[in-house]
Amino acid sequence: xxxxNLDKYIEQRKEKDKDFSFNFDEGYQxxxxxxxxxxxxxxxxITQLELAERLNTKKSAISRIENRTEDIKISxxxxxxxxxxxxxxxxxx
Length: 93
Known about the structure:
- This protein has helices spanning 3-16, 18-21, 24-43, 48-54, 59-67, 74-83.
- By secondary structure, it is mainly alpha-helical.
- The protein has one domain: 434 Repressor (Amino-terminal Domain), CATH 1.10.260.
- The two termini are 26 Å apart.
- The relative contact order is 0.11.
């Protein structure tokens, strides 16, 4: 499903289904952050275990960050970015 169709589907579903709509936007943003981190790690060519070792943490912590990023600290995002030789950029639009 291409992005335009996905966006349209989401908007239609939110209008019809209030349970789906409840906290959807916040959850979707958290999902996108985790997906971006996973993609950056894979592009860097490293495993979750290797990233965990760079951050002096456990592989399970990296999995949690990539799969459930709710309430992740900006300082943690910065540490992950640095470990991936990336820069963290935050913008408000």
